[in-house]
User: What shape does this take?
Amino acid sequence: MLLSGSKTGIFRTKPTRIDLPRNFKIIIMFTGSEGQIIPLSAAAALTSRFRTILMPLLGGIKGEFFGQDTINQVLAQPEAVGIRVYLGLSNDLIPLPKLVLVGVTAAGVDLINGVILEHGVACPPVCSIANPLNS
Assistant: This one.
């Protein structure tokens, strides 16, 4: 199922199937402008659903903080036009969610031989003051 946005929220629609030739390749070119700016209310709804449904299963982690200097190191790589965020789990006795950030080229290729970030500062215990994104 694909998720589509509307003024009244998120609803499910069936994807359209397109039969392509076997040797057909989809080429993606990133520009560095990907992503969508959303209002606080939409962001709060997303994080609220996460806290309600998944957070209890993932050790109570709400998010991670990454500093400007380390993010800039990823973006400063010669071919980087953006960052891809992968979801991971620590190998602790009780696995905790971890974010892995890697630079990405315009062709959508992860810069796996470059700067890769992990070890963000977890929230909790280090969180912002209570706000619609974390409370």
Remarks:
- The radius of gyration is 18 Å.
- The chain has a mean pLDDT of 85.
